[in-house]
Amino acid sequence: MHVISIVSQKGGAGKTTLTTNLAVAALKSGAKVAIVDLDPQATAANWGDRRQAETPVIVSAQAARLPQLLKQLDPRTRWVFIDTPPAISNTTMAAVRVADGILVPCRAAIFDLDTLGATLELIQLGRKIATVVLNAVPHRGQDVAEASAAIAGYGIAIAPVAVGHRATFQHAATVGLGALEYEPNSKAAREIGALFDWLRTAFREDRSDA
Predict the structure, then answer these.
(1) pTM of the entire structure?
(2) How many other CB atoms are found less than 10 A from the CB of residue 164?
(3) Pick the CATH number of 2-202 from 3.50.4.10, 1.10.569.10, 3.40.50.300, 2.40.30.20
(4) Are 208 and 185 in contact (CB under 8 A)?
(5) Which of 22, 37, 110, 190 has its CA 20 to 30 A from that of 134?
(6) CA 8 – CA 94 distance, rounded (Å)
(7) pLDDT tens-digit readout, 99-113
């Protein structure tokens, strides 16, 4: 079981978008998948309600129950994605502590970059290694290159796939789907597919070994 926590102090960074879309990508690979929603706003859980499907399993939980909840999941579960609230809190730390991998979504904007340091300090306190995912980036311009240069100063890895600001993500979320389901040939779907392929490689999973 690979537990991936999606963490960022900044609201609007796209944590739930990455959580739900990566979960759908994992489902498409043939794996059994769960989402744990720790955000009091329950955005991922609400997405699941609109989805009206048995998979992925979505559980709203409190931070104190997180270790026990993970033990209670179906042992065949291959991927668990944890959606966290937009704050530095005990809830976020709980998600960091149980994670095998941590993704930090970050927009290529100054306000997001300004708050990145606080998120990374929390992750370091948990003695974990994280990767920044540039998310909701503009279609054109030098934003990605400039943001990458700024993030490099923190000494943290950046995922090789940036996710664009694409309407497909919003349209898919409205009906409880991921981009890979809603428009499988879209740029949004290709980006999420590539990001999940990178994640699988990070855990040394063969594409045929789902």
Answers:
(1) 0.91
(2) 17
(3) 3.40.50.300
(4) no
(5) 37
(6) 13
(7) 999 999 988 776 677
